Amino acid sequence: MSSVTVRVPAKVNVQLSVGPLREDGYHDLVNVFHAVSIFDEVVAKESEAITVRVNGKWSDQVPVDDSNLAIRAARALAKHAGRTYGADLVINKDIPVAGGMAGGSADAAGALVACNELWGLGLPLEDLMEIAGDLGSDVPFSLIGGTAVGTGRGEQLSELPTGGTFHWVFAPAIGGLSTASVYAECDRLRQASGAEVPWPQLNDSLMEALGTGDAYALGSNLSNDLQAAALTLRPELGPTLDAGRQHGALGAIVSGSGPTCAFLAIDATHARDLAESLTATGAARTAVAAHGPVQGAVLI
Ligand SMILES: C[C@](O)(CO)[C@H](O)COP(=O)(O)OP(=O)(O)OC[C@H]1O[C@@H](n2ccc(N)nc2=O)[C@H](O)[C@@H]1O
Ligand SMILES: Nc1ncnc2c1ncn2[C@@H]1O[C@H](COP(=O)(O)OP(=O)(O)OP(=O)(O)O)[C@@H](O)[C@H]1O
């Protein structure tokens, strides 16, 4: 095979409950991931060495050196296979960078699936999931997509059946937020408040809303323990969330570590109208309608 293309979705977290800080610097989570129809594409071609290029609207913000998550993924796969392999990777980027939508994780997952195929390794998903977990807490979910509960760092996944399609609007912000800084700010706020941090629990009403496809119930049960930290670091997100609610969003939330804001709409038409209102009123610079759940990294 001389060229392989993989499409990988972005995610939003419909519940992100963050437990106490662990000794290894991570937090135990109850993390309900939901894959949405904003995609990066990873194209892998035969080559001597592992290299990466990035196209698309966010390309200038993505490193093309060894820190690129797609390169790290391809290297980890080659190491797992015990051989030296090359791949010329091209990322066509549509997922906001450092936006809380797991863009880098999507590219890592895309590179794993693409190189597994390009190099004819035939590794099962189980092996790819293990390599993915070592690359980052969100990478295993990017492989499977759909809707899933992540525990541990977020890498231990159980898939969740959903009762329908949900319609969303995403408003990326100018500039990103570092995931580690948002978790650190969350710890700082908690320490300052002095309150005990409870062990994270799955929200049963949220599970029911997902299972029945009830967008109204999902909207009123969205939660993100990182939101207060993201809003402290980026106070201008508060008015954007408020504007979405005023325009009829069923729920408005910071996506993961932010700063992208996510709005749940009633249906596809409402999502289009909401996106238009948010940009027309200047509440958001750009806003994109999308739906979920969608499948994870897939060969096309
Ligand atoms: C915010 C989320 O996107 C929600 O899905 C994820 O929890 C972050 O996942 P990710 O970007 O894949 O993060 P990683 O690359 O694994 O970790 C980056 C940094 O985030 C913090 N981190 C991440 C995951 C976790 N469960 N606890 C943490 O405290 C740690 O400081 C870590 O050094
Ligand atoms: N392929 C990649 N795409 C995007 N960013 C990458 C990539 N590889 C490395 N990075 C680096 O990772 C940082 C985080 O980018 P990413 O888009 O994954 O953030 P995020 O969506 O907030 O992540 P998450 O939601 O998983 O916490 C970027 O600032 C960038 O320097």
Task: Give your account of this protein's structure.
- It catalyses: 4-CDP-2-C-methyl-D-erythritol + ATP = 4-CDP-2-C-methyl-D-erythritol 2-phosphate + ADP + H(+).
- It is an enzyme of class 2 (transferase).
- Catalyzes the phosphorylation of the position 2 hydroxy group of 4-diphosphocytidyl-2C-methyl-D-erythritol.
- By secondary structure, the chain is an alpha+beta fold.
- It folds into 2 domains: 3-160, Ribosomal Protein S5, domain 2 (2-Layer Sandwich), CATH 3.30.230.10; 166-292, Alpha-Beta Plaits, CATH 3.30.70.
- The protein is built from 10 helices and 12 strands.
- The radius of gyration is 19 Å and the shape is globular.
- Residues 62-63, 67-70, 91, 97-105, 107, 138, 176, 179, 256-257 line the site of adenosine-5'-triphosphate (ATP).
- 4-diphosphocytidyl-2-C-methyl-D-erythritol (CDM) is lined by residues 13, 16, 25-27, 29, 31, 102, 105, 136-138, 153-154, 179-180, 183, 256-257.
Q: Brief description of this entry?
A:
This protein is an alpha+beta fold. It has helices at residues 69-81, 103-118, 125-135, 139-144, 179-193, 204-212, 215-221, 227-233, 237-246, 268-280; strands at 3-21, 27-45, 50-56, 87-93, 147-151, 156-159, 166-171, 223-224, 251-254, 261-265, 288-292, 298-299.
